[in-house]
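Re: the request from the purification team.
They wanted to know what the chain is likely to look like in 3D before they choose a buffer screen. I agreed to run a prediction and write the result into the notebook, where they can find it.
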Amino acid sequence: MPNFLGLRTVIYHVPDLARARAWYARATGVEPYFDEPFYAGFEVGGFEPGLDPDPTSGTAGASGPTAYWGVASADDAVAHLISIGAAPHQSMQEVGEGIRVAAVLDPFGNVLGVIENPSFRFRPE
């Protein structure tokens, strides 16, 4: 049986790596730790949003799975993402036990979800 260690990386397909790198740096507040012409990876709280510009590996868009990134305040996170160019996608929802989720579309059409879950401790870096 494999020893799963938890979610590590979510790959977002982007048509313009330089533009996506700049946008995700603004969105996350960190610069990529891995930055090559074929991929950029950010370390955010022990997880990696990765940017892949290769059109043969997938395309940008809202048809793929949605990763929900933990945040202290879903309202603040959505407001920040929209202020830097994201578009509303899934309105804020209370899904039970104080858990709130929402999602936006990044400027490249990918769904970027946020989740505020009081059962999980938020550990800012």
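For the purification team: The radius of gyration is 14 Å.
Please add any questions underneath this entry.
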